[in-house]
Design goal:
With 215 residues, the protein is mainly β. The chain has a single domain (8-33, 64-212), classed as Sortase, Chain: A (Beta Barrel). Helices cover 9% and strands 33% of the residues.
Length: 215
């Protein structure tokens, strides 16, 4: 897989699985079968692509592995675990446990590489209480998101937009479609509650603004 510029079918299959798996966010995540093929354009209906136009940003980072995520405005400072595919073809989510970390979907670019890098986290973790992304919906455009990579590089992103969307109107193309610059997506559950789960998703869209080499 060319993770820096994934092909559309691969990207959208992963996107559909991710959107379904985030249905839990407070209980054990529910599994949704991976979709086959490309979804229809209606997957992003009613949600504008928040990525702004503008000047060229810093040169993309090299392929590595994210190990730390910091979002100072909402007091997030967490290790990052890797997420792959489960046996049924759905995308894994971080474990439901106390102090569960954020997770990076390994099928997406490294944060700082060309394309949309995807990090997931829980808003609540069942009987363990608050999740790492409890305050994600409070982020504002202009906030910093800092991702430390295993190779010692630090990538810094600036939040462009924060959206809360219904799960059945998840903006697949805006979130997972190929981009012409390094971008970041932070995703959790949100919106109204239904039983032990949530009816929507909170999605943070951010773009790369700095790449800092190892000290």
């Amino acid at each position: 897989m060319r993770t820096s510029r994934p092909t559309a079918p691969t990207t959208f299959v992963a996107a559909a699985a991710l959107a379904g798996l985030l249905a839990g966010c407070g209980a054990a995540p529910s599994a949704a079968p991976a979709a086959a093929g490309r979804p229809t354009p209606s997957a992003s209906a009613g949600v504008d692509d928040p990525a702004p136009g503008g000047t060229a940003g810093p040169a993309p980072a090299a392929r590595s592995v994210p190990v730390r995520l910091r979002v100072p405005d909402i007091d997030v400072d967490t290790p990052v675990t890797g997420l792959g595919l489960a046996a049924d073809g759905t995308v894994e989510v971080p474990p439901v446990r106390a102090h569960s970390p954020a997770g990076w979907y390994r099928g997406s670019p490294t944060p700082g590489q060309l394309g949309p890098s995807v990090l997931l986290g829980h808003v609540t973790v069942g009987r363990y209480g608050d999740g790492v992304f409890l305050k994600l919906s409070r982020l504002k455009p202009g906030a910093r998101v800092v991702v430390g990579l295993r190779d010692g590089v630090t990538t810094t992103f600036t939040v462009d937009a924060v959206r809360t969307v219904a799960k059945d109107r998840f903006p697949t193309r805006a979130v997972y479609g190929n981009t012409d610059r390094p971008e970041l997506r932070l995703i959790t559950c949100g919106g109204p509650r239904s039983g032990s789960g949530y009816l929507g998703n909170v999605i943070v869209f951010a773009s790369l603004t700095a790449v800092t080499p190892p000290a």
